[in-house]
Protein backbone atom coordinates (compact mmCIF):
# COMPACT_ATOMS: atom_id res chain seq x y z
CA UNK A 1 0.00 0.00 0.00
CA UNK A 2 1.56 3.27 -1.19
CA UNK A 3 -0.59 5.73 0.77
CA UNK A 4 1.45 7.17 3.63
CA UNK A 5 -1.65 7.99 5.67
CA UNK A 6 -2.67 7.21 9.25
CA UNK A 7 -6.21 6.47 10.47
CA UNK A 8 -6.96 7.33 14.11
CA UNK A 9 -10.16 6.06 15.74
CA UNK A 10 -10.96 7.53 19.13
CA UNK A 11 -13.87 7.75 21.57
CA UNK A 12 -13.17 11.44 22.23
CA UNK A 13 -11.43 14.25 20.37
CA UNK A 14 -11.45 18.04 20.88
CA UNK A 15 -13.45 20.30 18.59
CA UNK A 16 -11.93 22.99 16.42
CA UNK A 17 -11.93 25.87 18.92
CA UNK A 18 -11.00 23.70 21.91
CA UNK A 19 -14.17 24.52 23.87
CA UNK A 20 -14.71 20.75 24.02
CA UNK A 21 -11.34 19.46 25.17
CA UNK A 22 -11.97 15.80 26.02
CA UNK A 23 -9.29 13.66 24.39
CA UNK A 24 -6.83 16.54 24.13
CA UNK A 25 -4.02 14.03 24.73
CA UNK A 26 -4.94 12.36 21.41
CA UNK A 27 -4.87 15.68 19.57
CA UNK A 28 -1.55 16.62 21.17
CA UNK A 29 -0.09 13.29 20.09
CA UNK A 30 -1.28 13.82 16.53
CA UNK A 31 0.26 17.30 16.52
CA UNK A 32 3.65 15.58 16.37
CA UNK A 33 2.76 12.28 14.66
CA UNK A 34 1.32 14.13 11.65
CA UNK A 35 4.85 15.08 10.61
CA UNK A 36 5.50 11.43 9.73
CA UNK A 37 2.49 11.10 7.40
CA UNK A 38 1.01 12.70 4.30
CA UNK A 39 -2.43 12.78 5.93
CA UNK A 40 -3.96 11.82 9.26
CA UNK A 41 -7.66 10.94 9.37
CA UNK A 42 -9.38 11.11 12.77
CA UNK A 43 -12.79 9.47 13.18
CA UNK A 44 -14.65 9.96 16.47
CA UNK A 45 -18.23 8.59 16.20
CA UNK A 46 -21.02 9.95 18.43
CA UNK A 47 -24.64 8.85 18.89
CA UNK A 48 -27.36 11.21 17.71
CA UNK A 49 -28.38 13.51 20.54
CA UNK A 50 -24.92 13.68 22.16
CA UNK A 51 -22.46 16.57 21.70
CA UNK A 52 -24.31 17.77 18.61
CA UNK A 53 -22.09 20.86 18.49
CA UNK A 54 -19.18 18.71 17.29
CA UNK A 55 -18.60 19.44 13.59
CA UNK A 56 -16.09 18.02 11.12
CA UNK A 57 -13.02 20.17 10.56
CA UNK A 58 -9.46 20.03 9.26
CA UNK A 59 -6.13 21.67 9.98
CA UNK A 60 -2.84 21.26 8.14
CA UNK A 61 -2.79 17.60 7.05
CA UNK A 62 -5.28 16.38 9.69
CA UNK A 63 -8.94 15.68 8.87
CA UNK A 64 -11.40 15.20 11.74
CA UNK A 65 -14.81 13.51 11.40
CA UNK A 66 -17.62 13.15 13.95
CA UNK A 67 -20.06 10.76 12.24
CA UNK A 68 -23.41 10.01 13.90
CA UNK A 69 -25.22 6.77 14.60
CA UNK A 70 -28.35 5.63 16.42
CA UNK A 71 -27.76 4.39 19.96
CA UNK A 72 -29.87 3.93 23.08
CA UNK A 73 -28.32 3.21 26.52
CA UNK A 74 -30.12 -0.11 26.96
CA UNK A 75 -28.84 -3.67 26.90
CA UNK A 76 -29.22 -4.55 23.21
CA UNK A 77 -27.70 -1.31 21.93
CA UNK A 78 -24.90 -1.41 24.51
CA UNK A 79 -23.90 -4.86 23.24
CA UNK A 80 -24.01 -3.61 19.65
CA UNK A 81 -22.00 -0.43 20.30
CA UNK A 82 -18.73 -1.84 18.92
CA UNK A 83 -20.37 -3.06 15.69
CA UNK A 84 -22.25 0.23 15.27
CA UNK A 85 -19.00 2.12 15.74
CA UNK A 86 -17.45 0.02 12.98
CA UNK A 87 -20.36 0.57 10.57
CA UNK A 88 -20.26 4.32 11.22
CA UNK A 89 -16.49 4.48 10.65
CA UNK A 90 -16.86 2.43 7.47
CA UNK A 91 -19.38 4.92 6.06
CA UNK A 92 -16.88 7.76 6.49
CA UNK A 93 -14.08 5.73 4.89
CA UNK A 94 -16.25 4.96 1.86
CA UNK A 95 -17.77 8.45 1.57
CA UNK A 96 -14.42 10.23 1.78
CA UNK A 97 -12.52 7.49 -0.09
CA UNK A 98 -9.94 7.35 2.69
CA UNK A 99 -6.78 5.34 2.07
CA UNK A 100 -4.37 4.52 4.91
CA UNK A 101 -1.64 2.02 5.68
CA UNK A 102 -2.15 1.62 9.44
CA UNK A 103 -4.87 2.36 12.01
CA UNK A 104 -4.42 3.48 15.61
CA UNK A 105 -7.35 3.12 18.02
CA UNK A 106 -7.46 5.01 21.30
CA UNK A 107 -9.36 3.10 24.02
CA UNK A 108 -10.07 -0.62 23.85
CA UNK A 109 -13.86 -0.12 23.84
CA UNK A 110 -15.53 0.77 21.60
CA UNK A 111 -12.87 2.30 19.29
CA UNK A 112 -10.50 -0.64 19.60
CA UNK A 113 -13.29 -3.13 19.00
CA UNK A 114 -14.43 -1.30 15.86
CA UNK A 115 -10.87 -1.05 14.55
CA UNK A 116 -10.20 -4.75 15.10
CA UNK A 117 -13.13 -5.47 12.75
CA UNK A 118 -11.68 -2.94 10.29
CA UNK A 119 -8.38 -4.83 10.35
CA UNK A 120 -10.20 -7.97 9.24
CA UNK A 121 -12.24 -6.32 6.48
CA UNK A 122 -9.52 -4.00 5.12
CA UNK A 123 -6.45 -6.18 5.71
CA UNK A 124 -4.53 -3.40 7.47
CA UNK A 125 -2.51 -3.55 10.71
CA UNK A 126 -3.76 -1.77 13.78
CA UNK A 127 -2.39 -0.49 17.05
CA UNK A 128 -4.48 0.18 20.16
CA UNK A 129 -3.67 2.41 23.13
CA UNK A 130 -5.32 1.23 26.35
CA UNK A 131 -6.38 4.45 28.08
CA UNK A 132 -8.49 3.85 31.17
CA UNK A 133 -7.25 0.31 31.76
CA UNK A 134 -7.22 -0.59 35.45
CA UNK A 135 -8.43 -3.36 37.74
CA UNK A 136 -11.85 -1.81 38.30
CA UNK A 137 -12.62 -1.82 34.55
CA UNK A 138 -11.21 -5.21 33.54
CA UNK A 139 -14.47 -7.13 34.00
CA UNK A 140 -16.40 -4.56 31.94
CA UNK A 141 -13.83 -4.64 29.15
CA UNK A 142 -13.59 -8.42 29.06
CA UNK A 143 -17.40 -8.67 28.81
CA UNK A 144 -17.28 -6.31 25.82
CA UNK A 145 -14.87 -8.16 23.60
CA UNK A 146 -11.61 -6.72 24.92
CA UNK A 147 -9.78 -10.03 24.58
CA UNK A 148 -10.67 -10.14 20.88
CA UNK A 149 -9.27 -6.63 20.46
CA UNK A 150 -6.02 -7.32 22.32
CA UNK A 151 -5.40 -10.60 20.50
CA UNK A 152 -6.16 -9.01 17.13
CA UNK A 153 -4.02 -5.90 17.69
CA UNK A 154 -0.58 -5.95 16.11
CA UNK A 155 0.71 -3.82 18.99
CA UNK A 156 -0.75 -2.57 22.26
CA UNK A 157 0.55 0.71 23.64
CA UNK A 158 0.11 1.23 27.36
CA UNK A 159 0.58 4.60 29.05
CA UNK A 160 1.60 3.00 32.34
CA UNK A 161 3.65 -0.04 33.34
CA UNK A 162 0.81 -1.36 35.48
CA UNK A 163 -1.28 -1.71 32.30
CA UNK A 164 1.43 -3.91 30.77
CA UNK A 165 1.30 -6.13 33.86
CA UNK A 166 -2.51 -6.29 33.77
CA UNK A 167 -2.51 -7.47 30.15
CA UNK A 168 0.22 -10.03 30.78
CA UNK A 169 -1.86 -11.32 33.67
CA UNK A 170 -4.77 -12.10 31.29
CA UNK A 171 -2.47 -13.85 28.82
CA UNK A 172 -1.49 -11.19 26.27
CA UNK A 173 2.05 -11.93 24.97
CA UNK A 174 4.69 -9.54 26.24
CA UNK A 175 6.21 -9.09 22.78
CA UNK A 176 3.20 -7.10 21.55
CA UNK A 177 3.02 -4.86 24.64
CA UNK A 178 4.71 -1.45 24.68
CA UNK A 179 5.04 1.05 27.51
CA UNK A 180 4.90 4.58 26.08
CA UNK A 181 3.61 7.28 28.44
CA UNK A 182 1.48 10.23 27.46
CA UNK A 183 3.31 13.41 26.59
CA UNK A 184 3.42 17.15 27.12
CA UNK A 185 3.92 19.96 24.62
CA UNK A 186 6.85 21.82 26.15
CA UNK A 187 6.34 24.72 23.75
CA UNK A 188 3.04 25.31 25.56
CA UNK A 189 3.85 24.12 29.07
CA UNK A 190 6.98 25.85 30.37
CA UNK A 191 7.85 28.10 33.35
CA UNK A 192 6.45 31.62 33.23
CA UNK A 193 6.70 34.54 35.64
CA UNK A 194 4.24 33.70 38.42
CA UNK A 195 3.61 37.28 39.57
CA UNK A 196 2.76 38.46 36.05
CA UNK A 197 0.43 35.52 35.46
CA UNK A 198 -1.37 36.14 38.75
CA UNK A 199 -1.98 39.76 37.79
CA UNK A 200 -3.38 38.61 34.45
CA UNK A 201 -5.71 36.10 36.14
CA UNK A 202 -6.59 38.43 39.03
CA UNK A 203 -5.08 36.05 41.63
CA UNK A 204 -3.53 37.52 44.80
CA UNK A 205 0.25 37.81 44.59
CA UNK A 206 0.80 37.54 48.35
CA UNK A 207 -0.97 34.19 48.87
CA UNK A 208 0.06 30.56 48.56
CA UNK A 209 -1.82 29.18 45.57
CA UNK A 210 -2.85 25.58 44.93
CA UNK A 211 -3.99 24.66 41.42
CA UNK A 212 -5.92 21.54 40.41
CA UNK A 213 -7.34 20.66 37.00
CA UNK A 214 -9.86 18.00 36.02
CA UNK A 215 -13.46 17.09 35.32
CA UNK A 216 -15.71 17.49 38.35
CA UNK A 217 -16.47 13.79 38.69
CA UNK A 218 -16.17 11.34 41.56
CA UNK A 219 -12.93 9.69 40.48
CA UNK A 220 -11.03 12.99 40.48
CA UNK A 221 -11.31 13.19 44.28
CA UNK A 222 -11.93 16.94 44.56
CA UNK A 223 -14.14 16.48 47.63
CA UNK A 224 -11.11 15.20 49.56
CA UNK A 225 -8.97 18.12 48.40
CA UNK A 226 -11.62 20.62 49.56
CA UNK A 227 -11.83 18.86 52.93
CA UNK A 228 -8.03 18.95 53.12
CA UNK A 229 -8.22 22.73 52.72
CA UNK A 230 -10.16 22.98 55.98
CA UNK A 231 -7.26 21.24 57.75
CA UNK A 232 -4.63 23.32 55.94
CA UNK A 233 -6.28 26.57 57.02
CA UNK A 234 -6.01 25.57 60.68
CA UNK A 235 -2.23 25.61 60.18
CA UNK A 236 -1.98 28.69 57.97
CA UNK A 237 -4.60 31.06 56.56
CA UNK A 238 -2.78 32.32 53.46
CA UNK A 239 -3.63 29.39 51.16
CA UNK A 240 -6.09 29.54 48.25
CA UNK A 241 -7.27 26.66 46.05
CA UNK A 242 -8.35 27.09 42.43
CA UNK A 243 -10.01 24.10 40.71
CA UNK A 244 -10.25 24.34 36.91
CA UNK A 245 -12.85 22.10 35.31
CA UNK A 246 -16.55 21.37 34.98
CA UNK A 247 -18.78 18.38 35.58
CA UNK A 248 -21.81 16.87 37.29
CA UNK A 249 -20.40 17.24 40.82
CA UNK A 250 -20.14 21.02 40.67
CA UNK A 251 -23.19 21.68 42.88
CA UNK A 252 -22.08 19.10 45.42
CA UNK A 253 -18.58 20.58 45.60
CA UNK A 254 -20.05 24.07 45.96
CA UNK A 255 -22.23 22.80 48.82
CA UNK A 256 -19.26 21.21 50.60
CA UNK A 257 -17.31 24.44 50.19
CA UNK A 258 -20.17 26.40 51.79
CA UNK A 259 -20.71 23.86 54.59
CA UNK A 260 -17.01 24.10 55.52
CA UNK A 261 -17.13 27.91 55.24
CA UNK A 262 -14.35 27.92 52.64
CA UNK A 263 -15.92 30.32 50.14
CA UNK A 264 -13.01 32.76 50.52
CA UNK A 265 -10.36 30.07 50.04
CA UNK A 266 -11.76 27.56 47.50
CA UNK A 267 -12.73 28.65 43.98
CA UNK A 268 -14.36 26.49 41.31
CA UNK A 269 -13.15 28.36 38.25
CA UNK A 270 -15.04 26.35 35.64
CA UNK A 271 -13.72 24.97 32.35
CA UNK A 272 -10.85 26.61 30.49
CA UNK A 273 -9.51 25.84 27.00
CA UNK A 274 -6.37 23.74 26.97
CA UNK A 275 -4.28 26.67 25.74
CA UNK A 276 -5.07 28.52 29.01
CA UNK A 277 -4.12 25.68 31.37
CA UNK A 278 -0.38 26.61 31.36
CA UNK A 279 -1.31 30.06 32.70
CA UNK A 280 -3.25 28.60 35.62
CA UNK A 281 -0.54 26.07 36.44
CA UNK A 282 2.12 28.79 36.37
CA UNK A 283 0.01 30.92 38.71
CA UNK A 284 0.31 28.29 41.43
CA UNK A 285 2.92 27.42 44.02
CA UNK A 286 1.90 23.76 43.87
CA UNK A 287 -0.16 21.54 41.61
CA UNK A 288 -2.48 19.03 43.33
CA UNK A 289 -4.08 15.94 41.77
CA UNK A 290 -6.31 14.16 44.36
CA UNK A 291 -7.66 11.45 41.98
CA UNK A 292 -8.98 8.14 43.24
CA UNK A 293 -7.78 6.43 40.06
CA UNK A 294 -5.69 7.49 37.05
CA UNK A 295 -4.29 5.55 34.14
CA UNK A 296 -1.51 8.11 33.75
CA UNK A 297 -2.49 11.67 34.69
CA UNK A 298 -1.32 14.01 31.92
CA UNK A 299 -1.77 17.06 34.14
CA UNK A 300 1.06 15.74 36.33
CA UNK A 301 3.62 16.14 33.56
CA UNK A 302 2.08 19.41 32.38
CA UNK A 303 2.67 20.83 35.86
CA UNK A 304 6.20 19.39 36.04
CA UNK A 305 7.03 20.93 32.65
CA UNK A 306 6.11 24.30 34.18
CA UNK A 307 8.56 23.61 37.02
CA UNK A 308 5.78 23.09 39.58
CA UNK A 309 6.00 20.36 42.23
CA UNK A 310 3.05 17.95 42.27
CA UNK A 311 1.12 16.66 45.27
CA UNK A 312 -0.84 13.62 44.16
CA UNK A 313 -2.41 10.42 45.34
CA UNK A 314 -1.19 6.88 44.77
CA UNK A 315 -3.87 6.33 42.12
CA UNK A 316 -2.34 3.89 39.63
CA UNK A 317 -0.77 6.51 37.39
CA UNK A 318 0.77 9.32 39.42
CA UNK A 319 3.23 7.09 41.25
CA UNK A 320 4.82 6.19 37.91
CA UNK A 321 5.44 9.90 37.26
CA UNK A 322 6.25 11.25 40.73
CA UNK A 323 9.12 8.82 41.31
CA UNK A 324 11.11 11.02 43.69
CA UNK A 325 10.36 13.54 46.43
CA UNK A 326 12.43 15.96 44.34
CA UNK A 327 9.43 16.24 42.01
CA UNK A 328 6.50 16.01 44.42
CA UNK A 329 4.84 14.10 47.23
CA UNK A 330 2.31 11.26 47.28
CA UNK A 331 -0.39 10.10 49.69
CA UNK A 332 -3.22 7.55 49.66
CA UNK A 333 -6.49 8.47 47.89
CA UNK A 334 -9.56 9.50 49.94
CA UNK A 335 -7.31 10.79 52.74
CA UNK A 336 -7.77 14.54 53.32
CA UNK A 337 -5.56 14.44 56.44
CA UNK A 338 -2.56 13.07 54.54
CA UNK A 339 -3.28 15.35 51.60
CA UNK A 340 -3.25 18.37 53.92
CA UNK A 341 -0.04 17.18 55.57
CA UNK A 342 1.78 16.75 52.25
CA UNK A 343 0.56 20.11 50.94
CA UNK A 344 1.79 21.87 54.08
CA UNK A 345 5.14 20.08 53.81
CA UNK A 346 5.44 21.12 50.17
CA UNK A 347 4.59 24.76 50.90
CA UNK A 348 7.45 24.86 53.41
CA UNK A 349 9.96 23.09 51.17
CA UNK A 350 12.53 24.71 48.88
CA UNK A 351 12.07 23.11 45.47
CA UNK A 352 14.58 22.96 42.63
CA UNK A 353 12.13 24.03 39.95
CA UNK A 354 14.66 23.81 37.13
CA UNK A 355 15.37 20.19 38.08
CA UNK A 356 11.63 19.51 38.03
CA UNK A 357 11.34 21.05 34.56
CA UNK A 358 14.28 19.07 33.20
CA UNK A 359 12.81 15.83 34.56
CA UNK A 360 9.66 16.52 32.52
CA UNK A 361 11.64 16.77 29.27
CA UNK A 362 11.54 12.98 28.86
CA UNK A 363 7.76 13.32 28.35
CA UNK A 364 8.07 15.88 25.53
CA UNK A 365 5.60 14.88 22.81
CA UNK A 366 8.42 14.94 20.26
CA UNK A 367 10.13 12.08 22.10
CA UNK A 368 6.85 10.23 22.63
CA UNK A 369 5.81 10.60 18.97
CA UNK A 370 9.13 9.11 17.86
CA UNK A 371 8.53 6.10 20.09
CA UNK A 372 4.99 5.62 18.74
CA UNK A 373 6.15 5.91 15.13
CA UNK A 374 8.81 3.27 15.85
CA UNK A 375 5.96 0.95 16.93
CA UNK A 376 4.22 1.64 13.61
CA UNK A 377 7.45 0.83 11.75
CA UNK A 378 7.86 -2.43 13.69
CA UNK A 379 4.28 -3.43 12.92
CA UNK A 380 4.47 -2.53 9.23
CA UNK A 381 7.78 -4.35 8.78
CA UNK A 382 6.06 -7.59 9.80
CA UNK A 383 2.97 -7.08 7.65
UniProtKB/TrEMBL annotation:
Span of domain Glycosyl transferase family: 197-362
The record's annotation in Pfam families points to: Glyco_transf_4 (PF13439), Glycos_transf_1 (PF00534)
Residue stretches making up the Glycosyltransferase subfamily 4-like N-terminal domain: 26-187
Extract the InterPro entries matched here: Glyco_trans_1 (IPR001296), Glyco_trans_4-like_N (IPR028098), Glycosyltransferase_grp1 (IPR050194)
Cite the entry's keywords alphabetically.
Transferase
GO MF term list: glycosyltransferase activity
> Gene3D superfamilies per the record?
Glycogen Phosphorylase B
Name of the protein this chain belongs to: Glycosyl transferase
Which species does this protein come from?
Answer: Pyrococcus furiosus (strain ATCC 43587 / DSM 3638 / JCM 8422 / Vc1)
Amino acid sequence: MDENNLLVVTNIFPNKDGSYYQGVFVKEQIKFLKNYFDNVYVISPWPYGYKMFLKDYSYENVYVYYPRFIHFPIGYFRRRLGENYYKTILKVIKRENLKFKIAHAHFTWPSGYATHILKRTHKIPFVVTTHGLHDTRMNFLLKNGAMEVWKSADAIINVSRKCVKLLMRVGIPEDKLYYIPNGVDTSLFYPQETALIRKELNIPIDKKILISVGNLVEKKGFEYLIRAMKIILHARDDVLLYIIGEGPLRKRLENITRELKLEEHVFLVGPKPHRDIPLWINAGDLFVLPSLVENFGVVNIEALACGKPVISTINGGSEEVITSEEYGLLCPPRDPECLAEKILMALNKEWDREKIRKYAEQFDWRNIARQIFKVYEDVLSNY
